[in-house]
Amino acid sequence: MLSGGSRFTPRLELRPFRRRDLDSLIDAAASSLPDLNKWLPWAHAGYGRRDALVFLRDSVSAWSEGRAFDFTIRYLDNPGFHVGNVSVWFVSRQSRVGEVGYWIRSSETKTGVGTEATARILAVAFDELGLHRVVLRIAVGNRASERIAEKLGFTREGLLRQELQINGEWVDHSIWGLLESEYRLKRAHYADAGWLTA
Description:
Blueprint: E1 7-8, E2 12-16, H1 22-36, H2 49-65, E3 68-75, E4 78-92, E5 97-104, H3 113-128, E6 133-139, H4 143-151, E7 155-166, E8 169-179, H5 180-192
Helix pairs in contact: 1-2, 3-5
C-alpha cells in the first residue's frame, strides 16, 4: 500500500487529493478546457462542480483500495494553486506493469512542470510500487505530452488505433514504455536536470 503523504521536487509538492481541493481543481480545469478537450475525454465543455466532485470521490476510494494513485501538483511557494494532476495506476499487478497519466493547466505549460512532476511520479512507480514497466498513452498530435515522454527517456513502442473517443471522434494513441532498468540508468539525469532532488 502506498503511503498517503506528500512527495517533493525542487519546485513542487505532489500530494493526494482532499475534499478542500474542489474549487482549485475546478478553476484549473475550467481555465484549461480549450486545450485539454482536444486530448482528454473527461474535459468536455460542460465540465464543472459535479464532475470534479465525482473525480475527488473516485480518487479517494481508488487510493484507499490501492487501485490508482492521483496526485495534485502544487508549487512549493504557492500551495493553494492547482497546477495539474499526475497519476499512476496498475495495468497488471502480476506483471508489475503500471501506467502514468498527467495534465497541466494551460497557464503553466512550457515551464517544465509536467516533466518534473512526471519524473517524480516515476520514482513512486518504480521505487515505491516496485513496478517493472511503466507506459504512457498519448493522443496522436499531442506534442507537449510526447516531449515529456522523450525527455524522460521513454521509447515509443507503437500505435493504438482509435483508442479513445474524444469529442465524438475516435483518436489514435501512441504507446510509450520505460523499463525499471532504464529508469535506474536515467534517474541521475533527472536529478542533474533539476527534476528530482539528488
